[in-house]
Design brief:
This protein is an alpha+beta fold and about 160 residues long. It is built from seven helices and five strands.
Length: about 160
């Protein structure tokens, strides 16, 4: 092997080594996407209103007023959120809840009803059942209670 090929091979090896070094250095300082998401979500947590609505990057918490006769497991089913998680978020020591109690629940979004909107259209838009939408908002008479300007909770599907 002549001298020019040896020099070229040596330079290639050195360049490859430098490239590997910087790649490892950059990768060790880079935060993986799943870790970034959690840090961003934690740092963006903030109180929005006196109605206990808190926004995280991908979770919205709403206030739910417990109607008469409803159980914690029924509320968990409506919002697709485990009973234990609801208990932790609301600092409950048992499954006992009472009518009128306010609970923080995980929701998908808030929606302000516009003129001419009906429950079925809003439910279809968010990909939830009309029944779940009405139940999550304690709406028993949609014709009367589903009115323009009202802000409703959209349960997670």
């Amino acid at each position: 092997m002549d001298k020019s090929k040896k020099v070229l091979l040596l330079l290639s090896a050195v360049l490859l080594g430098v490239l590997i070094y910087f790649t490892i250095d950059i990768m060790s300082q880079t935060v993986p996407p799943w870790a970034k998401k959690k840090k961003v979500a934690d740092s963006l947590a903030r109180q929005l209103s006196p109605n206990e609505v808190i926004i995280f990057t991908d979770t919205l918490w709403g206030e739910y007023h417990v109607p008469a006769g409803q159980t914690l497991s029924q509320i968990a089913e409506i919002f697709h959120f485990p009973v234990d998680s609801i208990k932790i978020v609301n600092q409950l020591s048992s499954d006992q809840i009472r009518q009128g109690q306010r609970l923080k629940v995980r929701i998908r979004a808030l929606h302000q009803i516009k003129a001419g909107e009906v429950a079925s259209k809003v439910a279809r838009y968010y990909g939830v059942s009309e029944k779940a939408l009405l139940k999550a908002n304690n709406i028993n008479n949609p014709a009367k209670e589903f009115r323009q300007g009202r802000v409703i909770l959209i349960p997670r599907s």
